């Protein structure tokens, strides 16, 4: 993590502050690490899941078009950090979901260019974004249970586990 953060420290030599935008879908540990290592004199931190209403994280009532509404705010992101569980989509305890298809669709949309197309660096941090087929500490059944607990439909959770642990 430290090496990733050090790669963006070169921004700090500029005269204008850079925006580090985060989409925190599960734990905020990753954004806290960035904040610890980046000087607030040089960097603004913007949590994109907090810029619109009504995301009721406490009751996990999230409108399906939340990301489109964030894009309409026209926030410029120099660095983008997406953090959550990952199993084909980003998801987590907040109830917020961000499918890869939505990121792809919005990256082609002019209304989201300041978030997705202006970022000089993007960090996609999820539990399985870099997972290999190597064995880990969970069985496929345990992984399915984690996904279901986090609100993923059991059928989809089984497909995700098959992609992670299966032969193909």
Describe the overall structure:
The chain has 168 residues and is of the alpha/beta class. It is built from seven helices and six strands; from the N terminus they run H-E-H-E-H-E-E-E-H-H-E-H-H. It has helices at residues 2-7, 29-37, 66-72, 100-107, 113-117, 140-149, 154-165; strands at residues 18-24, 43-47, 79-86, 89-91, 98-99, 121-126. Strands 1, 2, 3, 4, 5 and 6 form a six-stranded mixed β-sheet that branches. Strand 1 (18-24), helix 2 (29-37) and strand 2 form a beta-alpha-beta unit. Helix 6 (140-149) packs antiparallel against helix 7 (154-165). It is globular, with a radius of gyration of 17 Å. It starts with a helix and ends with a helix. The model has no long low-confidence stretch (mean pLDDT 81).
From the alpha carbons, calculate the radius of gyration and give it in angstroms. Answer: 17 Å
Low-pLDDT runs = none
| Annotation, overall tally of beta strands | 6
- Give the DSSP E fraction (strand runs of 2 or more residues): 15-25%
Order of helices and strands: HEHEHEEEHHEHH
**First-last Cα distance:** 29 Å
Please tally the helical runs, counting DSSP H or I stretches of 4 or more residues: 7
Q: Could you report the average pLDDT, rounded to the nearest whole number?
A: 81
Helix amount: 25-40%
The geometry reads as: globular
The largest sheet is: 6 strands, mixed
Structural class category: alpha/beta
